[in-house]
Amino acid sequence: MKLNTVLMLLAMWVPVAYCGNGPAAARVNGEEISEWRLERYFAEFLEDQGRAVASIRNPKAYKQLRQAALDALIDRELLWQEAVKRGVVISDAMVHSQVEQTRQAIGGADKFARRLEDAGFDEAGYIEYTRRELAARQVFVDLTQVAGPDEKQVRAFYEEHRAEMNRPEEVQARHNLNKVAQGADPSTVEAARLRLEQNQLEATDVSEEQGLEMVRTYLARQQQAQARRDVLAQLRSSNKIERIDDE
Q1: Mean pLDDT per 10-residue segment, the chain (247 residues)
Q2: Residue at 7 is within a domain
Q3: Which domain holds residue 140?
Q4: End-to-end distance of the chain based on CA atoms, in angstroms?
Q5: Which secondary structure element, helix H or strand E, spans residue 12, and what is its range?
Q6: Count of structural domains, the chain
Q7: In what order do the strands lie in the sheet with 24-28?
């Protein structure tokens, strides 16, 4: 697990004692997500994107990013509640393995203990929150299983896009050329055009077997992404969500 992900989880799963402090940013079926929790997570959310709160000058951009952070917290709460409904059980061995990975990712026992203290945890409390996180993840995996594309879909997509697959650099260069041609200066357009001609000379062939496998992987990822969007949309529509922070 990446360190940034570990730190974001610590911000997302704050102890219950802190969740009730101060005003609520949102409620999910009556369960509060506090402004305190949102503020902590928002800072981590921006840091993961290489940004800082003070660097955002545009009020509209700030609001959109904050809403995206709150969306993530709401989705996590929805998945946890769904895991409870479905009776998802995470074994002690799995929980302790994940906690140990987190300990090592942060830099060992001492740094881990300090990080937990900063986040308002003791280790016992963090173990239970790790169990909760793993349960939320598990139910998300269970709900977003897809069969994958059938071979007719794969073949049809491959036949339609075979020429592009044999010249991926050319396709990207054409895209760049179209972008820079819209209001760009002549030298920029000419540079893009030269790059396109170079890519045409350097194009390499992709075998049919390779092409079909590339298409199969691409379509599977597209289906998986759509399944995730659909599951979260269904959970949001079928549960009671109050977004107070947006008001």
Answers
A1: 44 45 87 87 81 82 90 93 95 93 88 81 83 92 92 89 62 51 54 55 66 87 92 96 85
A2: no
A3: 88-145
A4: 35
A5: helix 3-12
A6: 1
A7: 31-34, 24-28, 241-243
Fill in the amino acid letter for 205: D
Let me know if residue 102 belongs to a domain.
yes
3-class secondary structure per residue, 75-93: HHHHHHHHHHHHCCCCCHH
DSSP-derived letter for residue 145 is: -
The number of angstroms, rounded, from the C-alpha of 176 to the middle of its chain's C-alpha atoms is 27
The verdict on residue 133 lying in a domain is yes
Is 245 domain-assigned? Answer: no
Tens of pLDDT, residue by residue over 144-164, are 999 889 999 999 988 887 766
Q: d(Cα 245, Cα 71) in Å, to the nearest integer? A: 11
What's the token pair of residue 19?
């969740």
Q: What are phi and psi of 107, to 5 degrees?
A: 125, 20
